[in-house]
Amino acid sequence: MGGELSGATSSIPDAAPEAGAGRVVLVTGAGRRVGASIVEALHVAGCRVAVHYRASDADARALCERLNAIRPTSAFPFGADLLDVSAINGLIAAVVAHFGRLDGLVNNASSFFPTPLGEIDESGWHDLIGSNLKAPLFLCQAAAPHLRAALGSVVNIIDIHAERPLAGYPVYSAAKAGLVGTTRAMALELAPQVRVNGVAPGAIMWPEDGQFPAEQREAIVQHTLLKREGRAEDVAVVVRFLLLEAHYVTGQILAVDGGRSAHL
Description:
Blueprint: E1 24-27, H1 33-44, E2 48-53, H2 57-70, E3 75-79, H3 85-99, E4 104-107, H4 122-150, E5 153-157, H5 170-190, E6 195-201, H6 214-222, H7 232-245, E7 253-256
Parallel strand pairs: 1-2, 1-4, 2-3, 4-5, 5-6, 6-7
Helix pairs in contact: 1-7, 3-4, 4-5
């Protein structure tokens, strides 16, 4: 669910800079909200980051400027519409041309909106399946030769509703369920050189368009074991761990949901 990166002061715990030193990681949907926090966490760990955006041009460029002020030439923005397979291939080629290599991929970009049964149309289907399932698959395929050469890693941002569907959101839930299967399939296809894992967030950041009224938000939070909302940084540190440090972990999905899915 996603918000803005707060700015200069980060609450992301420090990691050993050598964990990502010299590595290049592409994060999709990274100009703002959870994606921007993931970028920041990887940058703190020493990575060079390719910041993908579709519409958030100004946010992506501002984020890269902040990071390059800390470590010059360590971040660069790349615009692409991931619903276009040719743009996906072009994005991977552009990242490798700019940085000279690709060590990691974080599939974070996502569309999220309701599709009540009886109102589902092809436009919604193509958007939700395209951003949440098709794009991650084709990004993995395009990146595979580079990730294999680098002994790299992939992390897919999924959702706890992949396994426990959200009422009123059948297409989104199905797309994320497909991404769970894709994560495990890619772990098999890319082994042994490349590890592929997933992170399934819960109530981390609410949509900005008012899809969840205050009472519904409170009910969701109270259903978590920790009785509080998560933060973008909670997802970011887990992504960083799986991408850079979990050297004997592949084909796994880790929920970051305050225990909500433990008793849905």
